[in-house]
């Protein structure tokens, strides 16, 4: 999971993290997200620099609703754009290749792949081309020629075999428009009936339409499990909300106002209806923002304000007491760092506001930045220096969004320069480089040799700066190898062979998810991982009575299934923390809570079941755990139909009061 926070954009850009279905023992799954080679930021920078944008840029700009952050837009369409209908793009070509193989690609697919420079997003390519078609002949060229001349028999044959109507649905201009397909009323219902109920093999178009039309809204079991169709099936996919005239107004912000108890204005209610926000959040039943079902109350808020904040000097969070060096970082002696990623977008949160809420100086905060560093860091560097102070620790998650080869010596030198600046302000820095590298959902993933080499290069430079350290943080290995990622290595490639640790010719649950990526003791100062608890995924079951299983977190750290306790993967915390003497950090962690009808456990009960383990004295004193980075963010989760979920522990008064009064605060700083 990642989040972009900066004082200028205040934008939250997230990708999901590991799904830990603890209470029911359901399979854990890696983050689901498409390739992450670019972002709204990088597309806009390319446009602002005057460089021509590709078809994929424009497709991503629309899909990611980038106008929310850049309302001025990115100008007119690029050369060689994909036609308006259907929305063919690098994504769809690559999806066709991965699902049906290289032979399923047409000449037009391959021509578009070149025209749109798709290798920028999918550097592994789309395999070897089949027997070549006549030189220069594509759907484009046949369509262009048909404007002035009658198509030949070969034209018509190629037009049909290459399924050119995918790009030109109106047909060739000099011949009769092709007849509509046998089932012109294609819907989620018809696809589900053919595939899940009748057992037909899903075509590439079936799979693309299923995703594009958000069919999981009606058939949460997916195409692999038949479910009863709704009594009145939809005849069209639910439309996405139109962009708001004001860049910061969305369904999310209206719903956040509801959550805070604010009365919704007439404009709020009008926009809620016009943008069909109930598709994501359910129906509003009153102008007060009440939603059916109603969120259960968390608890009674405290009657007195939080305690005063120690060492709250001059607005900065500082510490001048006894310190010890832990993994090259100066921290308060014999304490666990109480850290957080903050919701600076929805709530305008800051480290100082967080400290005020908990009545205690928190000394560790984090944020996510593209690497090589760009304006996202340079525009926020002074903000962090102003907010933090002597004795604070900053966790910088660096994401090489253009791949590991983009990490040049110049980029590393620029990073070191920034670290000296933070160091001079008394702020320690922990670099979390290319996290979750053992999964195939990030562009830097599944490349063990190149990853280790790049990590080592950065570590050698970072270690020249005092009070700066390197954090190695893979995804936790439950249910490895999480096949199907966009960046999984080709079978029998060098990366594949490196990951096949048991040398049986395949990547399976018996391979080690950690050791191929370990850079070496001299380069790693801290070790950690992401640990989240989610309801059973990807179905729509909204609760699991009792929340996470007892000892679920310890079992995850030790490579055990959370319910049975059966060892599945190597014991991470013993191997890499205890045996190597490395401090451990929960690099990201939170409890995912959804509410709905019936009589579910309360948000307080669910979160209490999580924090009693995560912040519990038994766990923290049993292992060398020195930091907890909590995901103090409330956001929408795509795999749950974009339903809002409150991860945070301190925004709700009742949740916060119980949390602060139940954890062993004497262990933390």
From TrEMBL:
Keywords: Glycosidase, Hydrolase, Signal. Gene3D superfamilies: Glycosidases. Residues 320-668 form the GH26 domain. The active site is at 436 (proton donor), 588 (nucleophile). Residues 230-244, 294-308 have a biased composition (Pro residues). Residues 224-248, 291-314 are annotated as: Disordered. GO terms for biological process: substituted mannan metabolic process. GO terms for molecular function: mannan endo-1,4-beta-mannosidase activity. Pfam families: Glyco_hydro_26. Residues 1-28 form the signal peptide. InterPro entries: GH, GH26_dom, Glyco_hydro_26. Belongs to the glycosyl hydrolase 26 family. This is Glycoside hydrolase family 26 protein. The lineage of its organism: Eukaryota, Fungi, Fungi incertae sedis, Chytridiomycota, Chytridiomycota incertae sedis.
């Amino acid at each position: 999971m990642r989040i972009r926070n900066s004082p200028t954009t205040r934008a939250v850009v997230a990708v999901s993290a590991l799904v830990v279905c603890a209470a029911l023992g359901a399979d854990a799954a890696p983050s689901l997200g498409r390739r992450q080679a670019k972002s709204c930021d990088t597309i806009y920078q390319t446009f602002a620099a005057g460089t021509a944008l590709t078809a994929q840029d424009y497709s991503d700009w629309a899909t990611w609703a980038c106008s929310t952050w850049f309302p001025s837009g990115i100008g007119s369409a690029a050369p060689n754009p994909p036609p308006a209908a259907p929305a063919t793009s690098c994504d769809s070509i690559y999806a066709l290749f991965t699902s049906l193989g290289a032979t399923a690609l047409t000449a037009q697919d391959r021509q578009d792949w070149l025209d749109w420079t798709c290798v920028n997003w999918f550097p592994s390519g789309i395999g070897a081309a089949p027997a070549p078609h006549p030189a220069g002949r594509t759907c484009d060229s046949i369509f262009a020629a048909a404007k002035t001349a009658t198509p030949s028999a070969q034209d018509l044959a190629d037009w049909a075999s290459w399924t050119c109507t995918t790009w030109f649905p109106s047909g060739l201009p000099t011949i009769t428009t092709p007849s509509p397909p046998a089932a012109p009323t294609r819907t989620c219902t018809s696809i589900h009936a053919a595939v899940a109920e009748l057992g037909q093999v899903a075509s590439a178009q079936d799979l693309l339409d299923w995703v594009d039309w958000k069919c999981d809204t009606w058939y949460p079991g997916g195409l692999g499990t038949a479910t009863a169709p709704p009594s009145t099936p939809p005849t069209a996919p639910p439309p996405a909300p139109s962009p708001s005239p004001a860049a910061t107004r969305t369904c999310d912000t209206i719903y956040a106002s509801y959550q805070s108890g604010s009365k919704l204005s007439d404009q709020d209610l009008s926009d809620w209806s016009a943008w069909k926000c109930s598709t994501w959040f359910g129906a509003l039943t009153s102008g007060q923002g009440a939603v059916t079902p109603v969120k259960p109350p968390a608890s009674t808020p405290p009657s007195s304000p939080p305690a005063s904040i120690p060492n709250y000097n001059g607005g900065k969070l500082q510490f001048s007491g006894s310190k010890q060096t832990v993994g090259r970082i100066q921290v308060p002696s014999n304490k666990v760092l109480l850290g957080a990623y903050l919701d600076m977008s929805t709530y305008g949160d800051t480290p100082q506001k967080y400290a005020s809420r908990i009545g205690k100086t928190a000394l560790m905060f984090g944020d996510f930045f593209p690497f090589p560093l760009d304006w996202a860091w340079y525009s926020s560097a002074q903000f962090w220096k102003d907010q933090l102070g002597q004795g604070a620790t900053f966790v910088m998650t660096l994401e090489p969004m253009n791949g590991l080869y983009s990490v040049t010596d110049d980029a590393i030198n620029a990073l070191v320069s920034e670290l000296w600046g933070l160091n001079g302000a008394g702020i320690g820095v922990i670099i979390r480089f290319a996290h979750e590298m053992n999964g195939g959902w990030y562009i830097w993933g599944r490349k063990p040799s190149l990853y280790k080499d790049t990590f080592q290069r950065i570590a050698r430079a970072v270690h020249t700066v005092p009070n700066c350290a390197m954090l190695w943080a893979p995804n936790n290995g439950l249910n490895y190898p999480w096949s199907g990622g966009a960046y999984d290595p080709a079978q029998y490639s060098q990366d594949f062979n490196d990951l096949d640790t048991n040398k049986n010719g395949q990547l399976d649950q018996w391979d080690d998810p950690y050791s191929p990526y370990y850079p070496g003791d001299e380069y790693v100062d801290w070790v950690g991982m992401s640990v989240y608890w989610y309801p059973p995924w990807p179905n729509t079951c909204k609760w699991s009575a009792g929340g996470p299983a007892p000892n679920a977190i310890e079992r995850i750290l030790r490579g055990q299934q959370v319910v049975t306790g059966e060892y599945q993967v190597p014991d991470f915390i013993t191997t890499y923390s205890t045996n190597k003497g490395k401090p451990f950090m929960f690099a990201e962690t939170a409890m995912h809570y959804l509410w709905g009808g019936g009589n579910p456990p309360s948000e307080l009960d669910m979160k209490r079941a999580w924090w009693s383990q995560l912040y519990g004295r038994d766990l923290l004193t049993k292992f060398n755990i020195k930091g907890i980075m909590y995901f103090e963010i409330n956001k929408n989760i795509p795999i749950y139909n974009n339903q809002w979920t409150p991860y945070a522990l301190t925004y709700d008064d009742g949740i916060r009061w119980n949390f602060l009064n139940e954890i062993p605060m004497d262990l933390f700083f």
